[in-house]
Amino acid sequence: MHTFNRREKKMEKEHLLKEFERSDESKWRTEKELEGKEENRRKDLIENAVNQTLASTAHLANLLPTGTVLAFQILCPIFSNSGHCDPVNVLMTQVLLVLCALSCFFVSFTDSFRGSDGKLHYGLATRKGLWTFNSMNDEIIPDAGKYQIRFLDFVHAFLSVLVFGAIALLDDNVVRCLYPAPKHETQEVLDVLPVGIGVFCSLLFVVFPTTRHGIGYPVASHHH
């Protein structure tokens, strides 16, 4: 009788232990499911924001010199080996990014005008006016004073570099090359940073519009 009672108690304990383990496992699964749903929701929010920003960034790309953007799009897959980088590819990709960023910065100080010959001429903004690349006589530059370098040019140059940085971070080849195995925190920064840059630069470009039509930028028909 005592043996039977001990067995019954043992079976009850085993049953309770199994129920407890099932409860723990169910609780763990529930927590994991909630974490998974939260993670998916966060990813969806970031993806939606990125998708919205991609359209904005595509628009922002129009604010960059066409030649620089085109060169980056053509050379990046080659230099980065489509994201599968060895140390040489990493160095080449970094050099490409620096050169493109410098190009965006420099071109922000260029402008254009139509000379008395009816042709379009480009030059570099200086404190005295526009210094033309083909050494034309300054007398044929209409309203030379309005082409003088301004503080706003430095603002646009800085914003152009930021915009290019955002475009580069949205390029899978660049990210896979420079950050082949990013940590969770780094991945979050890579997901969110281009969005923030896009919003920030969009706002400032609207608040501080440029009137220059430099190298690689579309020239308005009324621009003289």
Give a short synopsis of this structure.
Helices cover 65% and strands 6% of the residues. The chain has six helices and three strands.
Q: Would you mind describing this structure in some detail?
A:
This protein has 224 residues and is mainly α. The protein has helices spanning 2-61, 66-79, 87-107, 151-169, 172-178, 184-207, and strands at 110-114, 120-125, 130-132. It has a three-stranded antiparallel β-sheet, with no helix packed on it. Strand 2 (120-125) and strand 3 form a beta hairpin. Helix 1 runs parallel beside helix 6, helix 2 packs antiparallel against helix 3 and helix 4 (151-169) packs antiparallel against helix 6 (184-207).
Element-by-element helix/strand order: HHHEEEHHH
Roughly how much helix do the residues carry, as a percent range?
A: 55-70%
Count of helical regions: 6
Q: Which residues form runs of ≥5 with pLDDT under 50?
A: none
Beta-strand content bin:
5-15%
Mean pLDDT: 75
Q: What structural class is derived from the secondary structure elements? A: mainly alpha
The number of strands is: 3
Query: How far apart are the first and last residues' alpha carbons, in Å?
Result: 110 Å
- The backbone outline, from C-alpha atoms, is elongated
Strand order, largest beta sheet: 1-2-3
Query: How does the major sheet shape up?
Result: 3 strands, antiparallel
Radius of gyration, CA atoms, in whole angstroms: 29 Å
